Amino acid sequence: MSQNRVNPAPAGPLPDRRPDRFDPATAEMLAVLDAASDVHAKTLRPANTTKAYASDWKTWTEFTAEKNLPVDAATRGTFRGFVAWLWQRGGAPTTIDRKLTGTVVTLRREHHVVVNPDDVLAARELLRDYVSAAAEKQEAPRGRGQAPALLLPDLRKVAAACPLDTLAGLRDRALVLIAFAIAARRSEPAGLCVRDIQDDPNGLVVDVRVSKTRPRTVAVAYGSNPTTCPVRAWRAWAAAAGIAEDPGAPAFQHVDRHGRMLGAMTGQAVGQAVTRAGTRAGLTIKLTGHSVRAGLATEARRAGKSREAIAATTGHVPSSPVLDKYLREVDRWDPAENAGMGIGL
After folding, report:
1. How far apart (Å, rounded) are the C-alpha atoms in residues 192 and 79?
2. Which residues pair with 161 in a beta bridge?
3. In what order do the strands lie in the sheet containing 203-208?
4. Looking at the whole model, is its pTM more than 0.70?
5. Whole-angstrom Cα distance, residue 132 to residue 139?
6. CATH homologous superfamily of domain 152-331?
7. Distance (Å) of CA 38 to CA 110, 138, 265
C-alpha cells in the first residue's frame, strides 16, 4: 500500500539572493522601502533608548577620532581599545559595557557593519579582567553601584508618608505601589495609560507595553495591608484625578503645587518622585527609580517565589544574570544555598 510522502527538492544551484539580482526599478523601490522602514522603526523606539544610543555613539566617535581610526572599524582590536580607553578615563564597568552595546547596535543598524560577536565578547572579557585586577589591588569600586532595594518595611513608611489629602500625595502613593508591584523600570509607569490598567475581580491586570526590553502583562493582586495595597491606591488616585473613565489618559501625571494636572510624567520625573517619597518618609537610603524593581525581586524571593515567577513580573528571561544579582542577595542566606550554614560551626 503506497504512502503519501513529500518528495525532496530537486538538487541544483541555490537561488540567487544577491542584492544586485533585481532590475534597477525594483532595486530602487526596495531601497526606498528599507529607508521608510528604518524611519518607522525609529519612531517606535523609546526616546530614552534612542538618546542613550546617540550618547554611546558620540563617545565612540571621540575615541576613533583620537586614535585616528575610521568610525566603522569594528574589529577585536578596536573594541578592546575602546574598553581600555574608557577604563583609563575612569569609566564604571556598567557604563563601559552599555557604551559598547550601544556602539555595536549603531554600527549594525545605522552603518550596516557586520560585527563579529566573538570580537565583542573579547572586549567584554577584557573589561572583566580590568574589574578583577582592580579588585585585587583593592581599588574603590567605580560607579554608583546597584540601586538600593525598596524593601517592605521602608515601602510601608513611604506609603504612610504620602499625604492623602492632595492629588500629588495620592499620585505618589499609587505610583510607588504600582511600580513596586510590576517591578517597574522608571520609564514603564511613565508609559502607562489608563487603558493599560484593567480592573479584575482579583485586583488589576497591568499591560506594560512601553518597556526597555519586551512588553509584559502583570497581574497585581489586592494587598493584605490597605496602606500598601497597589489596587486600592490606584483606584483612589484615578478617581480623585478624574481619569478613571478616560482610557487614553496617562496613568500617572504631573501635578503642580496648585493641584493642577499637567500631562504625562517622564521616566526621569518618575524616578524623582520615588526619590522624594523616600526622603519624605525619612529613609536613611536614597531611593532611585530602580529601587522599586530591585525591591519586588528581593521580597518575592524572600517569600519563596520561583525564579520563573519573578522573571514573569520583572520581564527578565529566567536565566538572566541581571536577575541573578537580585536573587543572590537573598539566596546567600538560605541554609539550602549557603554551604557554611547548619553544618555545626
Report:
1. 37
2. none
3. 197-200, 203-208, 216-221
4. no
5. 10
6. Intergrase catalytic core (1.10.443.10)
7. 9, 47, 28
Nearest Cα to 182, choosing from 321, 285, 310, 318?
Answer: 310
Residues in the chain: 345
Please report, for the chain, the start and end positions of each structural domain, with discontinuous segments joined by +. 24-136, 152-331
pLDDT in tens, the chain (345 residues): 444 444 444 444 444 445 566 777 777 777 777 766 666 666 555 566 677 889 999 999 999 999 999 999 999 999 999 999 999 999 989 899 999 999 999 999 889 999 999 999 999 999 999 999 998 888 877 766 667 889 999 999 999 999 999 999 999 999 999 999 999 998 899 999 999 999 999 999 999 988 777 789 999 999 999 999 999 999 999 999 999 889 999 999 999 888 888 989 999 999 999 999 999 999 998 998 889 999 999 999 989 898 899 999 998 888 787 788 778 878 888 888 888 888 788
Beta bridge partners of residue 204, listed in sequence order: 199, 220
| Residue range 24-136, CATH number | 1.10.150.130
Residue 19 near residue 31, CB atoms below 8 Å: no
